[in-house]
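# step 3/5: fold
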Amino acid sequence: MIRALNPDRQPLRGDALALIAGLLLPLALAPLAWRPLALLSPALWLWTLLDATPRRAAWRGLLFGLGSFGLGVSWVFVSIHLYGHAPVVLAALLTLLFVAAMALYPTLLAWLLAHLSRHVPGAALTLFPLLWVAIEWLRGWLLTGFPWLQLGTAVLDTPWAGWLPLLGVLGGSYLLALLAAVAVQALRGSLHWGWPLLGLLLISGAGLWSQQQAWTRPLPQSRVTVGLVQPNIPQDLKWTPEQRQATLERLDQLSAPLWGVDLLLWSEAAVPLFFHQAQDYLAQAGQRAEQSGSALLLGIPFMTMAAQGSGFVAHNSLIALGNGEGLYHKQRLVPFGEYVPLERWLRGLIAFFDLPMSDFTAGAAGQPPISTTQGWRILPLICYEVAYADLARAQPADLLLTVSNDAWFGDSFGPWQHLEIARLRAAENGRPLLRATNDGISALIDHQGALLLQSERFVAQSLHGEVVLTAGETPYHRFGDWPLFGVGLATLAAALYRRARRRYQR
């Protein structure tokens, strides 16, 4: 029966299954979070690849990518059309081009798997999880990267979540892809069914064990009271001069019941002025923060003199006032949203390439954390930066925070996915995380990635809560992805050794 379902006996059926497998992947992630699909999706896709020619496999990789990214990042269309003011047809075309570019990554994976399967024994078990991780890593690095829709995100809220402080999100991707490969081999009769069951039990058991370990220890005496301000300023009004005073008044109004907390956090670019234009307002806010005993952290664009005095450059920044001290410039910018690649040719072609605040310059690497009078070190991540695991562990810190303006996503999967990614960073590093956004979802997240408090969407809201700081260091924070790379190299070396041994025996 199983062999009768071989997709290469009916190629079009195999193509359809690859597309369906891609569509299933985003459903395993927020907001639906149907976690079992994180096993079914890669397993179903792998099923279509194992007996395919490299050319057919590449086509099915493309279909898988079109399905997963077409559904999973459909919010790109919302950003381009509603807030970039591009016509529907043009917005759809640009979204399709972006999705197609992202789909090239699984295309490469599928082609490599089909090509290398001829030379590596047990390719499904050996190469598929390795290639999955390699492609996700490449996608998170190449051309500033797009580390979104990573398979390992689905280990959140499962017994496997304990793997995050050990191996990070890429480790979760590896384990899910490996178990999917084991299940496929069992279905094909290459392995006994006991192996996938044993693998499931061992991986789940190890994850539960890790969750019980004190990789980082909560410090009950170090409780931090937190206030989050969510102003809910419509994106198409945010930067208009007519809205400016109303925005500042709303920030003041929402902050009024929160003064006196240890940390008061406003969202990305909360103040719709450049730093040098808002000196009077910031002086008043800083004075209020100091008098109430609060550290006020807020997003604001910042302008500085360029190197060698050649004009000015703008940064997407976060500053601390009152009982806090520090200035952070965003390092990883969003293409087209914060800077325009090939600016010389694209500026002025359509309104989307001339968005407000789309001419930022990236900040330097190695910027120190924000500090407070209590001695706390706070590592800031602005918007899209929270998707980069390396940035969240770049500096020692007692607390992580991220500010964002998710109004760009509209009413889509985007804000929920963004929140879920923030939870990954907290769990990987064993540190609580604060998240303040313009229109939601603002949240407090504990050191294991669990949601303590979250806001509603599309409402102006003040949140008041508490987080407990932690001591110690998770294995992932200390070593990053290197242990996983070591596992991958050892696995590949073992497979190549088996191949060489078989040839020698012949």
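# step 4/5: annotate
The chain has two domains: 3-213+480-505, 217-304+316-332+366-471.
# step 5/5: archive (pending)
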